[in-house]
Specification:
The complex is a heterodimer of chains A (233) and B (243). Chain A is mainly α. Chain A has two domains: 1-61, no CATH class; 64-231, no CATH class. Chain A has helices at residues 2-30, 34-61, 63-76, 79-95, 98-109, 117-141, 145-160, 165-177, 183-197, 212-216, 218-231. Chain A is globular, with a radius of gyration of 20 Å. Chain B starts with 10 loop residues before the first helix and ends with a helix. Chain B has two domains: 1-69, no CATH class; 83-240, no CATH class. With 243 residues, chain B is mostly helical. Chain B has ten helices and no strands. The chains are: A mainly alpha (233), B mainly alpha (243). Chain B: Keywords: Membrane, Transmembrane, Transmembrane helix. Chain B: The chain crosses the membrane at residues 15-36, 48-69, 89-114, 126-146, 152-170, 182-203, 215-236. Chain B: InterPro entries: UmpAB.
């Protein structure tokens, strides 16, 4: 229960200041209707409580399992299975990410149903999966992060040239939302185990996620751009 | 104008969606449990309680966002467009970005990490200030983009160009931290409220399209921490050299 209380305070401090600004904007620009205000406040309470419960539950139920998998994988299975597991876990954890779902539903709401919510989430997840696998590969082969980031971003901007403009903004937004409240801790938990096995080249510290999150946010950009090339011309 | 509270409507659908969202992860974890990790019954029991909490929390979170923050963002966005002083959107964007960032727990973890890595040379308070102002500026840029209507790549290409060039010269420890931190400022509030507001403004404003000018805001917010940490990392390197 101690952790849950801690999560609640963290979430409260993250959401409350914005909520106050939102309430002020609502009063100034929209209306001073009491019922509308009440709905906003109750909704904010649900958001805060829900997020705290979600993160607390994930920490209790999912992260220890992730850590265990991270430490057992290198002991028990071969190189290629580690990469494969990175792909699968990156994929499924993105499907479970709240921020991704909210973005997908906003894209759906904005009209012009050119991609369904499901297809969009699947491609974002695919992008994360592939790049988590690449990040594991990078760590195992000890390639410098810059040598992965620069070509990846160059590829992203190259593909951008062939994509209709409506897809570009969505694609880059997708890169930002994958690093949400569940993906980052879960992937980090996994990576701790992998890092322990690869102890050599200490150009980086043990505390960082060895550029995993950086890599994980390129994948979805590329995936959604490719979706744009395939489904829209 | 509504005169009745909408609180629970659609919650069952949310619950079904959440179960669908978590199902693939749980299935994969079950496979790992059988073939790789073999947790004890006690550990499995703890994991199951956590999962039930996560399902309930996720559902509540989505419902709260759908009944409060998203409609509020849409209404406020549309109302500002109608307002004679619609340029107010720019300072409002700045304030929202700065407030959301300085309150985000992930940002605090980042500032702590950078202070440690730089042996105290980059103080937490300086990085926090840089990040809050940085995100504020980028949200303001996103709002200017909606009002004037210029393409996203006008900002993205030069910003990523600078970031990648600086990445070669900055301390390598800071490169990982910087690119990893892209996501820290794009917390739940950015996507739920600020983006909803931007999309609504772009949808209401004559000659603007939500897909062209509304989206792209999250991408801009993600740039601020990357640039801030890299530039501070480079300053730190130059400061360290003479010794």
């Amino acid at each position: 229960m101690g952790t849950l209380w801690h999560e609640f305070k963290e979430t409260l401090s993250a959401v409350l200041p914005v909520t106050i600004v939102v309430i002020l904007l609502q009063l100034i620009f929209v209306s001073t209707n009491v019922i509308e205000l009440l709905q906003l406040i109750i909704g904010a309470v649900m958001t805060i409580g829900g997020l705290a419960l979600f993160i607390g539950g994930a920490k209790l139920g999912l992260l220890p399992v992730g850590e265990k998998i991270g430490s057992r994988l290198p002991e028990k299975v071969s190189f290629s299975w580690i990469i494969m597991s990175g792909f699968l876990l990156g994929f499924v954890v993105t499907v479970a990410e709240p921020d991704v779902r909210i973005l997908a539903s906003q894209i759906d709401d904005a009209g012009e149903q050119f991609v369904s919510e499901g297809l969009l989430i699947a491609s974002i997840a695919l992008g994360v999966g592939v790049f988590v696998a690449l990040a594991f590969l990078r760590k195992l082969l000890q390639i410098k992060l810059v040598y992965m980031l620069v070509p990846s971003y160059m590829l992203v901007f190259f593909v951008t040239l062939f994509v209709p403009e409506e897809f570009i903004a969505i694609a880059f937004d997708a890169g930002g939302v994958t690093t949400g409240p569940i993906t980052v801790p879960f992937i980090l938990a996994l990576s701790i185990g992998i890092s322990a096995v690869v102890k050599g080249g200490n150009e980086e510290t043990s505390s960082d996620s060895f550029g995993l999150v950086a890599m994980a946010s390129i994948g979805p950009i590329l995936a959604v751009l490719i979706l744009g090339v395939l489904f829209y011309d | 104008m509504i005169d009745e509270l909408i609180l629970m409507e659609g919650m069952l659908e949310e619950l079904i969606e959440v179960i669908g969202a978590l199902a693939p992860l749980l299935a994969l974890l079950a496979v790992f449990q059988v073939f790789l990790i073999q947790l004890s019954w006690h550990e499995v029991y703890k994991a199951l309680i956590g999962i039930v909490m996560a399902v309930v929390g996720f559902t509540l979170f989505l419902q709260g966002v759908y009944i409060a923050f998203m409609p509020a963002g849409q209404e406020i966005g549309a109302a500002i467009v109608e307002h004679p002083e619609s340029w107010l959107l720019v300072p409002i964007g700045f304030v929202l970005g700065a407030v959301a960032t300085s309150a985000e727990p992930a940002v605090r973890v980042l500032t702590y990490e950078v202070e440690e890595e730089s042996n105290g040379a980059i103080r937490k308070s300086i990085l926090l200030l840089t990040l809050a102002l940085g995100v504020g500026v980028f949200v303001a840029v996103a709002m200017i983009r909606i009002l004037i209507g210029f393409p996203l790549w006008w900002v993205l290409v030069p910003a990523y160009g600078i970031a990648l060039i600086v990445a070669f010269f900055a301390d390598q420890r800071f490169v990982s931290i910087a690119f990893d931190s892209g996501g820290v400022a794009t917390g739940p509030m950015t996507v739920t409220f600020i983006l909803a507001m931007a999309i609504s403004v772009a949808g209401t404003l004559e000659g603007r399209d939500p897909f062209m000018e509304g989206f792209g805001l999250v991408a801009l917010v993600a740039l601020a921490p990357i640039l801030s940490v890299l530039i501070l990392g480079m300053i730190f390197r130059f400061k360290e050299k003479p010794e």
